[in-house]
Amino acid sequence: MTAHQTTQEPPISLLDPTRPPTPAPGCDVCDALDRQRAAAEEAGDIRRATAYEVEMRRHPGHRGGTS
Ligand SMILES: [Zn+2]
Q1: How much is the mean pLDDT over the chain?
Q2: Which of 15, 20, 25, 36 has a Cα at 20 to 30 A from 43?
């Protein structure tokens, strides 16, 4: 059991337990949002990453599964 991770953890708690949202397959918008989310997260901009997640969840045309 050597599951000790040495990755930096952000000072604020990462969003919520339902993350990350799954981008709808074949949806360019969700795909773009997911990439931007990942980029923002890598840059340490959790706020922005969260905003992208919210957008992705609210993207009409398909369901994310959570209700
Ligand atoms: Zn979408």
Answers
A1: 79
A2: 25
